[in-house]
Amino acid sequence: MKKKILIIAIVLFVLLTSLFACNKGNKVDYNDRIRKSAEAATEMDGVLTVTDNGEVVYKYETSLVMKGADATVTTSESQYNSSFVFDTQSSVNEYENYDKSNLVKINYDESKFKSSVSGDTVNLTVSEENFAAVVNAGAYRPSGNTTITLVFSGDKLQSIAMNYLTKTGLKVNVGYTYKY
């Protein structure tokens, strides 16, 4: 289960890292906005859904709730088991002195994506070739370009969304929302 939490944290890290390629002149501004968002967030919900011809074949949900310096992380993973039954396994983990900086560590390569900014929305376009360098999505690699959308409200990150098709035709949807 800790591996799944780590995977979700890595995906979030990579998505947040992507933001810094948006505008060389505004790197510090976005860095501050993301850092402050992580510090101020009281909840973060994430979901990764994989569908095949409209049928959900895999779903991973995580919810992080901060209580002062501590955090409660609830996860739920649903997939077909060996008996071809769609099975869900859930867990709740408590962490003392949870390090929110794990959500915003920055290590990026500006050459890996193109970006556009419109108001409080940042769209990052990642090529198929650079996807693995930007997003750790395991076996779910895209066919073609992928757009990652980050939405801010003022200085706070509100959501991250990414949708794409894999080479095998699976549809992958990833989304995160933040509460303050």
What's the gist of this structure?
With 180 residues, the chain is an alpha+beta fold. It is 19% helix and 46% strand.
Q: Which helices and strands occur, and which strands form pairs?
A:
Blueprint lengths: L1 H17 L8 H14 L2 E10 L2 E13 L2 E11 L5 E10 L17 E6 L2 E6 L4 H4 L11 E8 L2 E10 L5 E9 L1
Features:
alpha+beta, 3 helices, nine-stranded antiparallel β-sheet, 180 residues, flat
In terms of DSSP E residues, the strand content is: over 45%
Gap from first CA to last CA: 26 Å
Average pLDDT confidence is 80
Number of strands: 9
Shape: flat
Notes on the structure:
By secondary structure, the protein is an alpha+beta fold. Helix content is 19%, strand content 46%. It has helices at 2-18, 27-40, 131-134, and strands spanning 43-52, 55-67, 70-80, 86-95, 113-118, 121-126, 146-153, 156-165, 171-179. A nine-stranded antiparallel β-sheet has the order 4-3-2-1-9-8-7-6-5, with helices on one face. It is flat and about 40 Å long.
